[in-house]
Every structure is written in structure tokens, then in C-alpha cells.
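Hi again,

Forgot to attach this to my earlier email, sorry! This is the prediction with NDP bound. I've pasted everything inline since the attachment limit keeps bouncing my files.
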Amino acid sequence: MNKVLIIGAGGVGNVVAHKCAMVPEVFGEITLASRTVSKCEAIAAEVKKRTGREIATAQVDADHVAETVELIRKTGARLLINVALPYQDLTLMDACLEAGCDYMDTANYEPKDEAKFEYSWQWAYQERFEKAGLSALLGSGFDPGVTSVFTAWALKHHFDEIHTLDIIDVNGGDHGRAFATNFNPEINIREVTAPCRHWEEGEFVETPAMSEHREFMCPEGVGTYEIYRMYHEELESLTKHLPTIKRAQFWMSFSPNYLKHLEVLQNVGMTRIDPVNYNGVEVVPLQFLKAVLPDPGDLGQSTKGRTCIGNVITGIKDGVEKAVYVYNICDHEECFAEVGSQAISYTTGVPAMIGAKQMLEGGWSKPGVWNIEQHDPEGFMSDLNAHGLPWKCVELGVDMAKRLAVV
Ligand code: NDP
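C-alpha cells for the complex follow:
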């Protein structure tokens, strides 16, 4: 019987715990651990109510390797699913190596004191995982995650070479609050305020944050949204693993209201990540801001509307140019009815469960450190349809697909 240890009891941890519990033939024994154990207990009670399954809970500070090693040994976990924060990636990988456990996550490592995220730190573990006969899967959420697998699948079925990739993440949902982020506010704001980088003819080109935007009409009546170009971590691994890509860009929708609040918060210094001395206490403004903003995990009840996330891809098949759009649409209210979370946590937590399932079933268990697009996409793609994130692929006119490049 497979034993798994989930670390992190936030919005995403809630979805992962529910979805793993719904697949008992793969996830035999589940332990949910986090810094605040009461959050794990509350999720375990919900899981029991919805699925009838008992999951164990534990307290752990994942910044401390020895604590996690002890917990892995105690639970006998074969796989650790990291849905804590990106800051914990390296200590959790260290713990897995020491305790002999496979590892997976949904976001790449970033240091607390610098808003810089890149794969180099985690790729540096390749040899150690390989030697230990252990497997690490990086980036099994939606983006990175599903969008990366969409790219690998499109290459397998539709192209001989991919030339352009535009990942478009639209959240057409409304949570009814003046300002809230739909996943961890600290991580979210660090990400969207960072300078933009996109891939152009063999190198990353840096432009100011939010300086490029387009209008994008989503399919199936989701609506038309303003999307802004920004840097996202899967651009780094996808352009490395699919070297025929000439241009890769990531776009995300933001409402005018979100941008207005963000601009003010930036202008007044509330998004700073360096400590400020306030009455003799060191305060990091962004961490303080997180404490006063709504908890994304509490937005499920009030969020209405749909997300639409997918890839517009162009390239060559049999010498002819072609373009496809692969996407998923997810309804916030349906997610809440199923697992008590809004669609952002849902679209991250479901692929985390599916990535874990591929590892436990053996298809994705090769020793080493792997980005998700390096694995065969088939099982993952069919599990998306089976476990709540059905996708579609439509052919587009090449000119229409290329229009995203027009400045
Ligand atoms: P939350 O802030 O809601 O939850 C994070 C959880 O991790 C909390 O329970 C927190 O505990 C726990 N945690 C933080 N530090 C530690 C620690 N040192 N030891 C143990 N537990 C700790 O975040 P989300 O659920 O919204 O996001 C989880 C992850 O998913 C993040 O890494 C995020 O970047 C990623 N993500 C990925 C996406 C994708 O598509 N790939 C999309 C959205 C998110 P406490 O409650 O005590 O603070």
C-alpha cells in the first residue's frame, strides 16, 4: 500500500488531500503535515465528511530538515508531495534524500530574501537523486504543470517542431472582495511585480513588469480579458527541453481593479521584501500585507466565474505551418462544491495529485530530477479528463495564433 506525505495545509494542500483521498487504490495511506497542525486537522475533518476516508495529520516545520526526515520515517512515506511554499523546496529535497523518499512540488525554489526564481538550485540535485535511486518531479501544478504537459503532448501529437508558445492564464472569476490574491499573497505579489522576461531567438529578453498587454477572447463564452505578459518559471525549463522554440511568452489576466490596488501598494512600499524597523521590531512589509489580506483559502465560498488556462502553440508538421490551442476551463463554484476550494487552488491541487499518481504507478519514477514535460504525457493527460480538469485541443489559423506577438 502506497504511503504519501503531503506538506502544506493551505488552499492547494486542501485540494491535494481531498483528491488523493478520492483515489484509494493509489493513495493507500495519507498524512497531511504543516506548520500549523490545526489547519491539517480541519482539512482532515472535511476529507472524512466528503470521502469517508481517514487521513493522518502532523506538525512539521519544513525549514528544518531533521524534523521532516523524522516524519518521513515515522509515516513510512514513499512520496513527499510539497505544497508548502517555494522557500521550502530545497530543505524538503534534502530531507527526501536523507530519508529515502521520492519528491514532488508545484513551484520552483526561491530564496526568501530575493524575489528570484529559477530552476538552477533544484537542477543541481540531479546527480544526488539519481545516485540515491530516487525520483523528483518539479512543477506539477497547472502552470507550471498542466501547461508544460500540454506542450509535450502537442509536440507528440501535432508537431515535428514547436516554434512559438504562448501560455495564457485567464481567471474570469470574481471573489467579491476589494483586493485579494487567488493564491499565497506573498508569492503572488513577488511574482507579478518582478520584471518580465520572455524567450526570443535563443535568449531571455527583459522588459518592465506589466508593460505588454493584449486582449484575449476565451472560448466557450468565458469572456474577453486583458492579458499581461510576465515571467513564469516554466519558460525556463520548456525552452531548455524543447530547443526548437523560438519565442515563448506567458500571459496572465488582471482586472483593472487588481492593477489599481497593486500600483498603490507598490508606490507606498507595501510590496517590499526587505525588513523595515517599526517600533524596534523588524517587519517585512510584504509579509505584513499578507497577514491583513484575505486568505486565498477562504475565497472559495464567494468566488464565481471560470478560469481558462491554455497554450497557443505554432510550429511545423510535415513541412506545413500549423497552430493549436490546448486549454482547460474550470468553474469556481463547481470546485467549491466538490472540495471546498476555489478554482485556482483546484487547478493546482488536481495536477499535483495526478503527478503523484504517475510517480506511484511507476511510469514517472525514473531516478533523477525531472521537469514534468520530460515525462511521457499520455497518462497525465487522460487523468486530467478523469479527475476534474477536462481539456480540449482546437486548431487555429496560424496568423491568428501569431497575433499574440504583434506589439
Ligand atoms: P498557502 O499559503 O495557502 O499555504 C501554504 C501552506 O504551507 C500553509 O499551510 C503554511 O503553513 C505551510 N507552510 C509554510 N511554511 C511552512 C514550513 N516552514 N513548514 C511547514 N509548512 C509550512 O499557499 P497555497 O496553498 O496557495 O500554495 C501552495 C503552493 O502552491 C505554493 O508553493 C505556490 O507557489 C504553489 N502554487 C502553484 C501553482 C501552479 O499552478 N503551479 C499555482 C498556485 C500555487 P501556515 O498555515 O502555518 O502558514
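The CA atoms of residues 15 and 349 lie 5 Å apart. Residues 7-13, 34-36, 39, 60-63, 83-86, 88, 106-107, 141-145, 183-184, 187, 296-297, 348 surround NDP (CB under 6 Å).

That should be everything now.

G.
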